[in-house]
Structures are given as structure tokens and as C-alpha cells.
Amino acid sequence: MNAVLQAQGLGRKYGKRWALREFTIDIPAGHVVGLVGPNGAGKTTLLKLASGQLEPTAGGIIVLGSRPGDTPAQLARVGFVAQDTPVYAGLSVADHLRLGARLNPRWDAAMARDRIAQLGLDPAQRAGKLSGGQRAQLALTLGLAKRPELLILDEPVASLDPLARREFLQGLMEATVEHEFSVVLSSHLVSDLERVCDFLIVLVDSRVQVAGEVDQLLATHHRLTGPRRDPDRLPADQRVVCARHTDRQSTYVVRTDAPIHDPAWTVTQLGLEDLVLAYMDKRTMDQRVALEVQR
């Protein structure tokens, strides 16, 4: 299967600060990719690079086989829904659909009209009078009716209530099944990603901490709990992601492809949220180690 996004040493700098650094990845087509990380991790920068809104400072990125935004034809293959699902407050729902038809050569007018009808939106209603959930659904409709091969969504549900988030994500999943396109979705809400994503990227401090298919990541990460043990006494094939210690007990999250047979450990599997938090906690662990070395 062809790659939907490939990056090699990708970086973007604002002044002296790196917003994204040394980003290398190869994402196969056909996935719903969850992009997660703390504020300032580089998520929005990556999505803007992928959609052709920004140029790299370092490295390169290929989306759907060519440079992002390289030609009008390439732009037509990528949909983008920005943070806060922006729409034009003074335009009606129908105005948005007419604008979408004028701007997008692959526009599916029938699909857009049908979806608006299914959502119960009044075509004559101005967007500024819609609820947050309705505006999000309108923005998603515009992205879907473009008939993209890749749909990029930057925190599309962050400001929505739980019911509106569920309805938005349900609509997204139904569309991906029906129209078979790829999605890259950033979010702070890991529970939402857990519902819809089958590929995960964790960004922390502008760098990739882990990336891969969710099932494979969950199968190869484990929590070990047992008597206190220093990390240098763990087997070489157990890569420590994060660690916590008391006077008598150690708790590790490790990544390994090998079975864990040590009877001293209680081994438990991780959920997606546990895995994400472990890699975020790794940053705290690395900072503690650096401070100890400085002392």
C-alpha cells in the first residue's frame, strides 16, 4: 500500500525556536492517525507542513506522492479542518456549500447536500447562529465534500461538549468507511483517539517519541511492578519508557517484542491513554536524570 505521508528529518523553526525537529515517519495509506502531545509539542506545525501551509526549515515531507501544496491538483487531494472548525459567521450554510463547490474541483455537491439534510441543518441559517457542534459538523462536511484522499483535522473537537464530540467522530468514522480516505487527527483527548484511531504518533518537545499501529504498540508495551530494581538490571531487550520508584518497589513501562518471564514482576497491559502518558512522563524522567547528572 502506498504511503500517505513520508517525512525525513523534517523540521520547522520559528526564529531561534524549533517547533518541530528531526521528524521522520512513513504512514501507510488507509489509516486514521491520531496525533497527540502536550501544548507546544509541534502538532499544529506538522499538520500545516503536511497541508502545504508552511515550508520546512529542515528535511523534507511528501504527501500522497508529492510535495504538499506543490500543484493545484495536489491541493485538491488534501482536506484540512483547522482548530476551532472555522466557518464564516456571516455566510449561510448554503453559502458555504456554494463556496466549496467553486473552490474545489473534486466537490461532491450531492454528498454535501445529503449530509446537511441528515444533520438537520437549515441551509438558510447563518453559520454565526449555529451551535459549536453544528459549526464543527459544517466544517467537517466541507472537508468531506472536497472528496480528499487525505483529511487533516487539527483539534476539531477540543471545544465541543461530549455529545457533540461523539456525533462529530461518529460522522467522521462513517465517512472513512464509506469513502475510504486517510485521516490525520490531532487531539488532546486520548479517549477520543482511542475510539477512532488505528495509528498513533506521540509528539513531545517537538520530537516523535513513538509511532506505529495502535494494536502493535499495545502488544509490545507492558507495565512491570515488583521489588525495587535499577534499570541496568533489566534485560537488554526491554527498553524503558518511564520508571517510578519507592523505597521498596519499582514500576516500569517497557517496550519489548519478547515475552516477559521474570516471576518477580507483575506484568499488566497498557491502554492507549496509559501508553501516551508513559511517553509524556518519559520527558519528566529525562529531565530528572539530567538534573541529577548536573549535580
Automatic annotation (TrEMBL):
Residues spanning the membrane: none
GO molecular function: ATP binding; ATP hydrolysis activity
InterPro entries (alphabetical): AAA+_ATPase, ABC_transporter-like_ATP-bd, ABC_Transporter_VariousFunc, P-loop_NTPase
Keyword tRNA processing in record: no
Pfam family, one: ABC_tran
Domain ABC transporter: 5-230
Highest taxon of the lineage: Bacteria
UniProt keyword annotations, A-Z: ATP-binding, Nucleotide-binding, Transport
Keyword set includes Nucleotidyltransferase: no
Protein name: ABC transporter, ATP-binding protein
